[in-house]
Design goal:
single chain, 194 residues, alpha/beta, Rossmann fold, 8 helices
Length: 194
């Protein structure tokens, strides 16, 4: 039984290529959550409203916002760290009404969509936050390779701690406390299932 309406926030701008992506995002939501009912307003309203006419575009945006208010969650799909004007308006609307929570995904590679868990719901994210997975990914291969090579050469984990800290960042109190980490994970999963 489908129980959770999920609002899809992604770029449109009247481009057919963005509609293709929106369909993929809807499929992604269905694959991730069997109780989901994804809704992308730009897959529906441009079928009968003309995006190039300001009054019809505004009507479509209002119809989309009406669905946003009824949704349990908003999933924001970002390509290359860019939020369009329409996406920003939808996110601001969700934040202003305090509902639904927003979850952000890096969809720069549509075949490898990554949830950006570091982006906080209820606050408009910065470009730096939206681009964070890309710089990390570019450093990951090189950083992990050098650490793996050192371990294979006989280095102890404790000898590599400073190298790991510079690559991954310092452990915070939650990460260094397994009990606190388990508590955080439990609350995260409960929040996602509410």
């Amino acid at each position: 039984m489908i129980t959770k309406d999920i609002f899809i926030c992604s770029a449109f701008g009247g481009l057919e290529s963005n509609l293709v992506l929106a369909r993929k995002y809807c499929q992604y939501v269905l694959d991730k959550d069997e109780d989901a009912n994804p809704f992308a307003p730009h897959l529906i309203f441009p079928q009968f409203l003309d995006e190039s006419k300001p009054e019809e575009r505004e009507r479509g945006m209002q119809l989309g916002k009406d669905r946003l208010y009824k949704s349990k969650e908003m999933w924001v799909f970002v390509v290359d760290g860019v939020l369009t004007v329409g996406m920003t308006d939808e996110i601001k609307e969700a934040i202003a009404c305090g509902y639904p929570p927003q979850y952000y995904f890096d969809a720069t590679d549509v075949n490898n969509i990554v949830e950006m868990r570091h982006v906080v719901s209820g606050v408009l994210p910065t470009i730096g936050q939206l681009l964070a997975p890309k710089p990390f990914a570019s450093r990951a291969s090189k950083g992990l390779s050098s650490i793996a090579a050192a371990l294979k050469a006989g280095a102890r984990y404790s000898d590599l701690q400073s190298q790991l800290d510079s690559f991954l960042g310092q452990l915070d109190n939650t990460e260094s406390n397994p009990e606190a980490d388990a508590t955080w994970e439990t609350s995260y999963r409960i929040d996602r299932n509410d």
